[in-house]
Write a structure and sequence with these properties.
It contains six helices and eleven strands. The protein is α/β, with parallel strands linked by helices. The chain has a single domain, classed as HUPs (Rossmann fold, 3-Layer(aba) Sandwich). Strands 9-8-7-10-6-1-4-5-11 form a nine-stranded mixed β-sheet, sandwiched between helices. The longest helix has 16 residues. The chain is globular and about 70 Å long.
Length: 259
């Protein structure tokens, strides 16, 4: 089985955000620390878990981004992936999921992957579009928000459970090749082993300049980014429990929440 895992480098979440002068995106030098997108770690772990069960499995890991994005590819190899592909771009502004998906799909289209995995969403942009867009480009079935999967006895069908609203689950059987986006909590991502990290640091990545790939049509434009605006102020009720309950009832009646 050949598996492709898509990983993304994202900024550390506790770093302050600064916008560029025209307010259309974040300053390129706003962040000094980066990491692998947390949900992509679950996708890598799913692939490595399959490799431990099926010894003939090979795992490629791919990322789109500038030079520094190679770090997350190396980390994925340290977790157990076999080969890294870096689709290198020097775009410093907003990188649309339509571009990322199109480039990954162009690379994957002739590689005969049985399974393509991504995280359910990225921590920075939270678009949740790359996986489904890859599936659309490659005309593959896709399941999002996957919390359980099992390869059935024919080795060509995946039983999948995906998380939906209200704590319910969709249960699907999908023929490979298939694209899955993996939800957090599905497994426990392992730390890269020292031996794998040493191997990863010595391994030569496959680097492809995205300028040599097909340039997708721009389907979205960022007009402005801004900090969230506080829309309402909280009111703290004081007094005894009885007084606070009376005030709460009064407020609910005034807002017509109760009669």
């Amino acid at each position: 089985m050949k598996i492709l895992v898509c990983v993304k480098q994202v900024p550390e979440s506790d770093v302050p955000i600064h916008f560029n002068d025209d307010g259309t995106w974040i300053q390129a030098d706003s962040f000094s620390e980066y990491k692998m997108n947390r949900l992509d770690e679950y996708a890598v772990e799913e692939a490595v878990g399959l490799k431990e069960v099926f010894s003939d499995t090979t795992i490629d890991v791919i990322s789109v981004g500038p030079d520094r994005s190679a770090d997350v590819i190396i980390r994925a190899i340290g977790m157990g992936a076999d080969h890294g592909i870096h689709l290198k771009t020097e775009i410093n502004g907003y990188l649309s999921p339509s571009f990322i998906a199109a480039w990954i799909a162009e690379y994957a289209c002739k590689k005969n992957y049985a399974l393509i995995l991504t995280g359910a969403v990225s921590e920075d942009h939270m678009n949740a579009q790359v996986g489904p867009r890859i599936a659309a480009h490659l005309d593959m079935p896709c399941a999002t928000g996957v919390i359980f999967k099992k390869l059935l006895s024919d080795n060509h069908t995946l039983y999948v459970e995906r998380e939906i609203e209200g704590g319910n689950r969709d249960m699907l059987e999908l023929k490979t090749p298939v694209v899955l986006t993996i939800q957090s909590g599905t497994n426990t991502p392992r730390y890269p082993s020292l031996s794998n990290l040493l191997r990863a640091n010595k391994q030569e990545l496959e680097i492809i300049d995205t300028r040599k790939l097909t340039q997708p049509e721009t389907v979205e434009t960022i007009f402005q980014v801004a900090y969230p605006v506080k829309s309402r102020a909280a009111e703290v009720l004081t007094g005894s429990p009885q007084e606070k309950a009376t005030k709460l009832l009064q407020i609910l009646r005034e807002k017509a929440f109760i009669e």
